[in-house]
Amino acid sequence: MRRADREVKDFDEICDILDKSQILHLALCDKNKPYSVPMNFGYEVKDGKIFVYLHGAKEGKKHDILKVNDNVCFSGVSVAEIGKSEKAQNWTEFYKSVIAFGKISVIEDENEKIKGLDLMMRHYGFLQKALYPPESLKAVRVLKIAVDEITGKQHLK
Questions:
Q1: Which of 19, 27, 38, 2 is nearest to 96 (CA)?
Q2: What backbone torsions phi and psi does residue 129 show, to the nearest 5 degrees?
Q3: Is the pLDDT assigned to residue 1 strictly greater than 90?
Q4: Contact of 24 with 52, CB cutoff 8 Å
Q5: Which of 66, 89, 109, 155 is the most buried (most CB within 10 A)?
């Protein structure tokens, strides 16, 4: 990281950034052409490792790409504010962000699918027990990223 003074190294702080991020931007590799898509998410920490869950349709460009390459990257931002100034060269951005790399897989097991959906619902504030009709579970694809590497960065006021 070029700006080591802005690096967030504490694992709990990195998780706090994820907690406060509303959208993850998932980056995929389509041969030699990058492809990025904003997605809703939920996550859990298990044995010190982060697992991110995403959901969406069962077809589409991202799934076509993932059939060929399961390497992914994502970023999340929990704080983003432009720091204005009288002089253009003094403008800045205040932020807290994470970037992560990992492998993504399709969840086939219905219980783990429900777990992933529950984590997503809790992330956005739905705290009751969620019930998913069988036809909804059948129609949705749940993806899971096993995060291999994650870094945080911040520039605060």
A1: 19
A2: -70, 120
A3: no
A4: yes
A5: 66
